[in-house]
Specification:
By secondary structure, this protein is mainly alpha-helical. It contains five helices and no strands.
């Protein structure tokens, strides 16, 4: 079997293996640590299950929106507007969006998209730093 053919067979349906998987998994775990611990803390203190549920449900929705957009891009069909993708990320779907970006290799090269995506991730981090460490009295739910 030729090297080129072997490389093609290693690839999945959307572009192949994730490069630097361990590093990217580590980064994903780091950026998910604050939202997960904050959401779990709120749930365990009886405040609200909403943040924990929202991150899970909206992340699944974000993944499927990215998947659908990737399929539409390949078929040269009408695409999901970027502001819709960003709205879902802002609503808590950024963990699923980050997974989709890597698994599907979608929206990873467009710098303007990535800048706004990481601003959204940073906003979530700042929110949970405020909730967990700065004593914000904001109540969710």
């Amino acid at each position: 079997m030729s090297d080129a053919r072997a490389r093609r067979q290693d690839r999945g349906p959307y572009g192949g293996r994730i490069q630097h998987l361990k590093l990217k998994l580590f980064v994903w775990l780091i950026v998910c640590a604050l939202p997960l611990s904050g959401s779990l803390s709120m749930w365990l203190r009886g405040i609200s299950l909403l943040p924990l549920a929202a991150y899970g449900i909206v992340s699944v929705l974000a993944f499927f929106l990215y998947w659908a957009d990737k399929r539409k891009a390949r078929a040269e069909a009408w695409r999901t507007p970027e502001n819709v993708l960003h709205a879902v990320e802002l609503a808590g779907g950024w963990p699923g969006a980050l997974i989709a970006q890597q698994v599907l290799r979608h929206k990873t090269r467009k710098v303007s998209f990535q800048v706004l995506f990481w601003v959204i991730v940073a906003l979530h981090q700042v929110f949970w730093i405020d909730q967990l460490f700065l004593g914000s009295s904001l109540s969710l739910g």
